[in-house]
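Aim 2 progress update. The chain analyzed this quarter is reproduced below.
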Amino acid sequence: MNPGYFGERCVPYFSPIHVTCVTPLKTGKGILEMDFFDACYAEGVQNFQGMRLKLLMRAENYLIGQLLGHGSEVRSAIISHIEFEWLRLFCPHIVEAHPPSESGSVSMYLDRIFGTRQT
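Predicted structure tokens:
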């Protein structure tokens, strides 16, 4: 997410999220409603439901959107698949606390340590 919450320049905030639901609102304005689990949210691990995202750019492996519902603040997010190297770079505290097995997928690893698998 950019801008982030801290520092003089509010540097971007990085967190693995587990998207559980995406619903296009079919307004013709490129707005999605998303439910997701945010593993490193500033106020602690948290589930978000009904977060609205206006698509700004869609590519093969990621999307960029404007987070709606933040009043006059304009915040954008990049959502993509992540890999273990991304976790090591942006969330070293997770990797240090829960060393991963390189043979598994990042999604399965995060599901295991955060208990996010939907049943």
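The chain has two domains: 1-80, 82-112. The longest helix spans residues 106-114. These observations will guide the mutagenesis experiments scheduled for the next reporting period.
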